[in-house]
Amino acid sequence: MMIRCLAEFNVPVDKLVLFASPRSAGAHLYFIDQPVPVLALEESSLLQRFDYVLFSAGAGIARTYAPVATTAQSVVIDNSSGFRQEPHIPLIVPEINGDLIQGYEGIIANPNCSTIQLVLPLAILHALYGLKKVVVTTLQSVSGSGNSGIQTLLNQRKGNPDKGEYPDVIDLNVIPQIGALLDNGYCKEEEKMHFETRKILSLPDLEVCATTTRVPVIYGHSISVYAEFERQTSIPEAEAALRTAPSIVYHANSYFTPKDIDDSNDSHISRLRHGTDRHSLCFWNVGHNVRLGAATNAARILIAHAVFAGRM
Questions:
Q1: Which one of 5, 113, 251, 288 is the catalytic residue?
Q2: Residues 66, 135 within the same domain
Q3: Catalytic residue check, 113
Q4: What pLDDT digit, counting tens, does each position of 47-78 carry?
Q5: Global pTM value
């Protein structure tokens, strides 16, 4: 999907090199209809300088190899959780805090999939009303677990009872846990959303409470959002701001579901309404977790940095 996004966004790629584990070496992927061979990743692979190195190989691989790439003065955009909580490493959604990477060289962290689609509308509403508290429940598709999650669901629908990596059967079910359960009662995915929302919005004291669930949907994460603000809110004003915001599609008189997501790169907002009072808002949020929540944002980070650096 990252390769597809680079092509779709017309990134002027002079040379594309693909690395993977040894078992994938020798395969070919296509970039703008041209076959590109997959090479086995070794430490020496990244000692040559690239303008950009995009990682989507898990936190362990990223922690091992991303620093190697930076020694060659390559800019690294990492899709894993490996560097998101490092205070000196920017966690970027370009529409919100892309200015942080102007003149920056090194590792750039790509946020969690659910966080990206959530903070896009929250940033708009925060600018209007001053965000104080966010309570969310996510309904996250099985593709968030990678291809293994998709295959687990499809196999269960064929009658295979194997749970795969999930703690329970996912077909015709909802699992209220993503990642390991922590001592404080939250799970790892929830803690990611707590930390990352505060960091991206530059609101270290923001109150955030997330409940993350896995649902039997292939693509598209959904979030039920309740947000409280310092100032009184206005539905018409909020609607107008969301309609004109980049990377957001506002649905005024209908609602949007994962079944509608197709190849969308936007964060979709519907069912906007007041919460418990005029200082709060509720809305329904849907985004393509593999696109907006991963590859699209990575490509947008690359483009933003390349523009700042005069490469585009």
A1: 113
A2: no
A3: yes
A4: 999 999 999 999 999 999 999 999 999 999 99
A5: 0.97
